[in-house]
Specification:
Blueprint: E1 3-9, H1 15-29, E2 36-42, H2 54-62, H3 76-82, E3 85-88, H4 91-100, H5 104-108, E4 110-112, H6 133-161
Parallel strand pairs: 1-2, 1-3, 3-4
Helix pairs in contact: 1-6, 2-6
The chain binds 4-nitrophenyl phosphate (4NP).
């Protein structure tokens, strides 16, 4: 069975669609699309049905990431059942997700993106929405590091669970 990751930010138009695109690019480059999949969602529904923010898209495409997702809010019942990892971008996202959790199993699925980063310079993926170009670049810098860390963790877990241990 595939491991499933849901990336979560506030609006699902900047950070989590970028996380989805960066993570999908790693899966493709490392031949892991059949083992792992991902999606993204927002804790708020303000932008439901909208494509990713045009500024975020233009910064992402310069690094080769196409943001194709359409904003949707987290659906606590469906998403906590469907996904193995539910990864918030900042402490507010994690707090909002914890409030949605129905039980201990749900709570155990919730993580913060920067907890998987090798660089310990950032404690969250900062919201770039009201800032300038640097903020969008920083989102991508942090995500490139943290998505690889998350993928390493998932690959170890898959190996750990497999009977041959490899
Ligand atoms: P995101 O960024 O959570 O990374 O998608 C934001 C998008 C929209 C708003 C805030 C943050 N907003 O206030 O509409």
């Amino acid at each position: 069975m595939k491991e499933k990751v849901l990336f979560v930010c506030l609006g699902n138009i900047c950070r989590s669609p970028s996380a989805e695109a960066v993570f999908n690019s790693l899966l493709e480059n490392q031949g892991l699309e059949s083992a792992v999949e991902c999606d993204s969602a927002g804790t708020a529904a303000y932008h439901e049905g909208e494509p990713a923010d045009a500024r975020m898209q233009s910064h992402a495409i310069r690094r080769g990431y196409r943001l194709t997702s359409v904003s949707r809010p987290v659906d606590p019942v469906v998403d906590f059942d469907r996904f193995d990892y539910i990864v918030g971008m900042d402490d507010n996202n994690v707090w909002d997700l914890k409030k949605m959790a129905r039980n201990l199993d749900d709570l155990k699925k919730i993580h913060k993106m920067t907890d998987f980063a090798k660089s310990k310079s950032y404690q969250s993926v900062p919201d770039p929405y009201y800032g300038g170009a640097d903020g969008f670049e920083l989102v991508l810098d942090i995500l490139e590091d943290a998505c690889q860390g998350l993928l390493n963790r998932i690959v170890w877990e898959i190996r750990d669970k497999s009977p041959a241990g490899k």
